[in-house]
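User: Structure please.
Assistant: Input sequence and predicted structure:
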Amino acid sequence: MNDQVTLSAGWHRLASQTARKINIGWLLEKMTPLMVGAGALAFVVIVWQRSNGVEIQLKQVWPWLAGTVLSLAVTSYLLARRRFVAKADALVRLESQMHLHNALSVAELGRGVWPELPKQRADGLQWRWSRVTVPFALYALCLATALYLPVTPDAAAVLPTVEPQAWQQMDDWLEKLEEEKIITPEEKEEQQAKIDALRDQEQEKWFSHESLNASDTLKEQLQREIGNLARDMADAERSLNTLQNYASKLSEQAKEQMLKEYSEALEGMKNGGMKLDPQLLKELSQIDPKNLKSLSQEQLNQLRDSLKQKSDSMSEMAPGKGFLGDGEGEDDQLAEGRGGLGEGEAEGPGNGGIARGPGTAPLTLSEVENNLGTHKTEALMNQDMSRAQLGTLLNLQDGKHGVDKTYTGPQAAGAIQNPGQGGQQIWRESLTPEEKAVLKRVFK
């Protein structure tokens, strides 16, 4: 009796192991494709997060990994449980594989004895480890690749943001003005703040109509202020050049004009829209145009060269508003022209230069009549018809209508010229289809 109890427990244990193996096999059958899909999805999500600049480490993934595996296990259990086998089914599987001829089923019912336990399990089931482990390995490989694969952040985070071209131009202008010590750092910051006010708005609005219009207006304003400053520097340089090198050729009126232009240029640089560099402004303010001999020739040349260089640099930013001439040849002509002022002014029209005279040329009437031959009519002939077009007038001549003046006498009106022949002599009536149908029905 004790032997039967021991055998019964042994067979039930084998049946439980067999049933567990079968049920786990069905669970893995449903779970492995889900694991592959979850691994691919996790790879895409992690790589996308990393490409957007999010740092993800392995310790952050473990909770999500455990939750994913648990969710997949529950889902797989719900899908595979209808295929699970019970202990009784496992006993049938064992007696079938061991050829016991229903001995286990009979013993389970108490109608027979339990056979001896086999020395080795003989349920006929073998694990295919390649099929079981490959999906899990793929899942782990996807996670490892997503975490440790070198990923370049998104292009939006790496590439510089595209800004309106006007902003970049103004930034370059201000940088160059500060680098060449034309404006003060405070002036640059003040102008830069206006550009940053446009840059601080939402990026989606950078290229809107209002933003582009404001950018162009700010650029034109800055360009106009740079052009005014360049013009004032050019005027100051020309005035100094004339007073320095051609003072002996200038009349008193011309000298006064040069002094006035220098004062106006200096005042424009002081009170302009852009604050000039204090050092340059101090050097210009210390110069007395009436007494240039107090300064050495080298100092004046150095100051003039600085003015020309700065004016030329700003002229590139505001074309047409900067320094005119190089201070050599053209300035010589300009100084000679200005030197002629007041030396011999004459009445009448000038020569188009700076010493053109006191005013415009008067409008006078001449006593000599000009005969331009406008009352003479001449014919035009053109024998070349290769370029003639429709509507082109080829010939024009005088003529009269041709009238037949032969007398014919009175004639009768309404006479028949041709009475017709055959059926044309008979009057025919045009009938409608309805009228024709009535006639056919009445007159057969």
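The chain has two domains: 2-148, 167-339.
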